[in-house]
């Protein structure tokens, strides 16, 4: 692996074998994904940090750009209000608005073993619950901001981190990064935005709690039956015993699918003929599973207690799927991961490098964008108080802010996953009652909505 | 308590006379011995001074509030050009004297905001440590920072009305003759310049929390670091500064949460406090 990658770089312009020279930056971001690139843009846009030199290391080649007239892409994110505010603050939002995105007015969540159902929306649909945006469009928008601040942010493509050394271990003043092609860099602060297998995190030596869910997520872009779709502004999620199935609106007649299921089932779905796949999908949304009678009875009692007769109960059904776009199906593994601390002397973690959650509540990338906001705020306040960028004395503030915000959400999402991956009757009963109570009691519902939607 | 207050009264009266500080020093041998003991006590810690998790941990944490206090104090006085506000050059061009700089924890941080900082301390080991840290870990600041092993009394002689700000942070509670020290500090200040003081109040909660609990139970600071006799209330500091034509413009109370190593501002000066006073500009200068 190592030899092949370094061989591939030999025709690049900067591969003079002078590994002794070390280039210095104030901040190096390892990983140019959604969160890493957004962080680079946010650092460049902060007035206090504007004089800092930032290097963004990205393993892949140059970003191809985004074509807003092309077909919809299969990797999309449900972006909440806080994240949109972040995009607005770094001037990336107009770029997204000018291209394409779909506001979600309502979210309906229901399950397979009882009638329990919950709907999230703002009063009178006054504002959006979330926006569904293609990941590449977000990347395109933040890259535009990064390019506009090219004087202090440098992007280095095809640069994979070989090894990292941090001041806490070496006793040196700076953090050091060596790339696989032998180039060396040093910095005041190294930020690990390098995903769930973060090299930076491993070197930081923080405790990591991780779980493999033995599930895979399958994504695809779908065409809906036009007569059933309406304005297609509802996000649908049904919990099946194998995992949740979600339909996120893209346009009036297209939606994006996120289907979490067992590994063999995911592989089977991936290799099916399109027509077969569409049938399997439509069935999954409508199929009747073995009911837990007691749970249904309890729900009826609960609903009558709140004065809702079952006929008033506004159960909606998602539009049926007509077709799947060819080549849009892809699978990815699902897991849970959390680092006990996001900082150490000379380094910090953001996004999936620090935490990874199940996609069922659409929280993953929003937590990452939350990290970006808190980290930039903390670094700016620290720099304005004369702290070195990598000083743990001040970085700890970022750690505290993020942990208090992220841990409850992560536990909540993990709890939901666990709660809904069983057909055990007492659990079905309790979760159904819990969901219905939440649906019927606005204060509780608003509490969860605030948590999930920022 | 009574004893120390009467001591202060006597001092503030004598200090009204010119050069009172140098003339009226009583039992100067005793005082020199006491100063030497204090310097020695702090010098013994020189090796651990920069260790954030060491005995000076609380002092590192104090930077979170004292740097912004000094920074915003200078900005509010209108001494900072607006283009530098909100940038890391906010203290550009400011000449700051730090009295009792120790190993330079605060000194470096003020210099990182582009101020020219002179740090003086009586401890030879401390000044050595401060210089070594500057060259080894913060070389980029070496043109901004100067360390000198000398007393404020000596320093003022060659630097009268020289500084935009004088900082006396966590020092007053180690000094016997506070009036003389403050007198010399004020002399080195330009008219219109600010003196910033942070110290601990002479109250029972402070003594119980800071000395009994902090030094003897929790080891937050080495035993024998602080003494009741030398603590001083903000009102007394204010009165002393008044006699030197320095008007107190800001007084903030602060406290230390040892369980999370964090300082925060509070609505009471019962524990610790930070004070800013401004030296009067003589009328004929206007």
UniProtKB/TrEMBL annotation, chain A:
InterPro entries: FAD-bd, FAD/NAD-bd_sf, Ubi_Hdrlase_CS, UbiH/COQ6, UbiH/COQ6_monooxygenase, UbQ_mOase_COQ6. It is an enzyme of class 1 (oxidoreductase). The keyword Cell division does not apply. PROSITE patterns: UBIH (PS01304). GO terms for molecular function: 2-methoxy-6-polyprenolphenol 4-hydroxylase activity; 4-hydroxy-3-all-trans-polyprenylbenzoate oxygenase activity; FAD binding; oxidoreductase activity, acting on paired donors, with incorporation or reduction of molecular oxygen, reduced flavin or flavoprotein as one donor, and incorporation of one atom of oxygen. Residues 1-20 are annotated as: Disordered. Signal peptide: none annotated. The keyword Flavoprotein applies. It is a peripheral membrane protein. Pfam families: FAD_binding_3. Its cofactor is FAD. FAD-dependent monooxygenase required for two non-consecutive steps during ubiquinone biosynthesis. Required for the C5-ring hydroxylation during ubiquinone biosynthesis by catalyzing the hydroxylation of 4-hydroxy-3-(all-trans-polyprenyl)benzoic acid to 3,4-dihydroxy-5-(all-trans-polyprenyl)benzoic acid. Also acts downstream of coq4, for the C1-hydroxylation during ubiquinone biosynthesis by catalyzing the hydroxylation of 2-methoxy-6-(all-trans-polyprenyl)phenol to 2-methoxy-6-(all-trans-polyprenyl)benzene-1,4-diol. Component of a multi-subunit COQ enzyme complex. This is Ubiquinone biosynthesis monooxygenase COQ6, mitochondrial. It comes from Drosophila busckii (Fruit fly). The gene is Coq6.
UniProtKB/TrEMBL annotation, chain B:
It is an enzyme of class 2 (transferase). GO terms for cellular component: extrinsic component of mitochondrial inner membrane. Its EC number is 2.1.1.64, 2.1.1.-, 2.1.1.114. Its cofactor is Mg(2+). GO terms for biological process: methylation. Gene3D superfamilies: Vaccinia Virus protein VP39 (3.40.50.150). Keywords: Magnesium, Membrane, Metal-binding, Methyltransferase, Mitochondrion, Mitochondrion inner membrane, S-adenosyl-L-methionine, Transferase, Ubiquinone biosynthesis. SUPFAM superfamilies: S-adenosyl-L-methionine-dependent methyltransferases (SSF53335). Pathway: Cofactor biosynthesis; ubiquinone biosynthesis. S-adenosyl-L-methionine binds at residues 66, 100, 121, 169. It is found in: Mitochondrion inner membrane. Residues 97-197 form the Methyltransferase type domain. Mg(2+) binds at residues 170, 173-174. It catalyses: a 3,4-dihydroxy-5-(all-trans-polyprenyl)benzoate + S-adenosyl-L-methionine = a 4-hydroxy-3-methoxy-5-(all-trans-polyprenyl)benzoate + S-adenosyl-L-homocysteine + H(+); a 3-demethylubiquinone + S-adenosyl-L-methionine = a ubiquinone + S-adenosyl-L-homocysteine; a 3-demethylubiquinol + S-adenosyl-L-methionine = a ubiquinol + S-adenosyl-L-homocysteine + H(+). One of its GO terms (molecular function) is 3-demethylubiquinone 3-O-methyltransferase activity. The keyword Ribosomal protein does not apply. It is a peripheral membrane protein. O-methyltransferase required for two non-consecutive steps during ubiquinone biosynthesis. Catalyzes the 2 O-methylation of 3,4-dihydroxy-5-(all-trans-polyprenyl)benzoic acid into 4-hydroxy-3-methoxy-5-(all-trans-polyprenyl)benzoic acid. Also catalyzes the last step of ubiquinone biosynthesis by mediating methylation of 3-demethylubiquinone into ubiquinone. Also able to mediate the methylation of 3-demethylubiquinol into ubiquinol. PANTHER family: METHYLTRANSFERASE, UBIQUINONE BIOSYNTHESIS O-METHYLTRANSFERASE, MITOCHONDRIAL. Component of a multi-subunit COQ enzyme complex. Belongs to the class I-like SAM-binding methyltransferase superfamily. UbiG/COQ3 family. This is Ubiquinone biosynthesis O-methyltransferase, mitochondrial. It comes from Drosophila busckii (Fruit fly). The gene is Coq3.
